[in-house]
Amino acid sequence: MRLTQGTFSFLPDLTDLQISSQIEYCLQRGWAVSVEHTEDPHPRNTYWEMYGNPMFDLKDAAGIMREVDECRRTFPNRYIKVNAFDSTRGVESLRLSFIVARPQEEPGFELLREEGPGREVRYSMRSYATRRPEGHRY
Amino acid sequence: MKRIGDRTASNPAAERYRAGVLKYAQMGYWDSGYRPKETDVLALFRITPQEGVEPSEAAAAVAGESSTATWTVVWTDRLTACDRYRAKAYKVEPVPTSPGQYFAYIAYDLDLFEPGSVANLTASIIGNVFGFKPLKALRLEDMRLPAAYVKTFSGPATGTIVERERLDKFGRPLLGATVKPKLGLSGKNYGRVVYEALQGGLDFTKDDENINSQPFMHWRDRFLNCMEAVNRAQAASGEVKGHYLNVTAATMEDMYERAEFAKQLGSVIVMIDLVIGYTAIQSMARWARKNDMILHLHRAGHSTYTRQKNHGISFRVISKWMRLAGVDHLHAGTIVGKLEGDPNTVQGFYNVLREPLNPQDLQRGIFFEQDWAGLPGVMPVASGGIHAGQMHQLLTYLGDDTVLQFGGGTIGHPMGIAAGATANRVALEAVVLARNEGRDIWREGPAILADAAKHCTPLRAALDTWGEVTFDYASTDTPDFVPTPTAAA
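Structure tokens for the assembled complex are given below, as produced in the milestone run.
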């Protein structure tokens, strides 16, 4: 299974050069870039772990790439994404968010159904990986 | 019989209110010296007066009939602050290159309108004037809604920003498809189309405007099967997915019942049609805000009054009303697809729906500056006759905050529905990536798509099937201030 969250997950994994030019695009627009990682890729998991604060004052794509690289080396088998935050009034949210690293094996999600009255079904989904404790999932 | 005013004929005020018929301009509905207040509601009408009717008198008549006037003088005006309540036509100018047509600018005092009611606003502005005999035709072109009035509305239930956060999807247009054939599928087969399209890569699928509860598929059956499909696709992709469950029905009670069921099943979005009416739309928007639901509006029926330039209402005005009413999605044209849509005019609709402030922009048909006073934006939806081969054109014309809906362009794919969805998603991501890298996607689009198709057979097949399909017809609803290029130019 390939997790397809993020802006470019249907394309082949981005090269460092491609990642860097997306970061450049964000910096040109004045957006703050940040790096986040997780072992819990459930789509409702809004809060991935922050690899440091958003880099509001770092305006250099090469510098940000070093952060991305460091995160990838520290967590070689996790999902890592790059976000770009736009603080303009009326936006104050992400403008771009794309996955730059993923675990070697992606076991995916189990769909759980709880049958209710009539034909109603209550659904929930669970990542196969989160059955193991954090730090031992991938 | 004693006539009112007989004894005071020398007094000018008494003269004004003498029983009988006056021209609207004489009754005070024309004031070329009037300076609109910041809190006035402004309307711009395109008027086509009958022969022999002065444009200023026609404009005054529209101002009169859309505010306080009737056809004759009434003394009861004098029991009110009537000078203030009279709408004022303050400017008339000929429409460029359209002989016999005039733009009439009219200002309305804010006190004429009930706070937070689209029904009340529209009952005044379009309530009584469109059949008026001294005019051959009349079209409401644009409105300026003062911030003081905008603030009385809640606006979109969710808004573009929160919608993206809820869906966890950023940096690209969203992708959707309408299930086809739109009528006749059983619930089980219908859900199959939803599942294939969503797990293939779309973010949303959609009921069509006329799918409600028919003999071949009752609404509960549709909802149950669609939600099975949505949840299966979410588990297969790890993404949030949605199906616009159309809750349009005969009564509000039915609509609430259907919407509640959609919520109970975990849907992130419900849908309504424009034909349910402004009040019903506002009620559903309030329900959606209360229940954390995205509200999709299909503009069913609008072309009956938006398409012809001489009579009716411009869709930019409908867009403004719907942003006030509080929907989150609104179909607003594709430019390149099968339905009416001049590029500049459609971009005007998109800007009205999603920008925090619209500057005057005559090229795009926007006559007034409009400050939305913090009201969230509506996500415009492009739907009707579009395909993967147009992705670079769609992104150039429409930008990121839009839903691109490929119905036939997904379901009609030669390799199947899921492949059709994948083709669209890959095409979109490839074009966004290239644009962000600084490439000229308008010129290089076909090459970018062809490159992406090298690692995606479904995209190759889509380009081979539809690559050359265009709908290149002249538009009828075009701006008055620029020569109009066609989409293919």
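Chain A is about 20% helix and 30% strand. Residues 1 and 108 of chain A are 5 Å apart (CA to CA). Further analysis is deferred to the final report.
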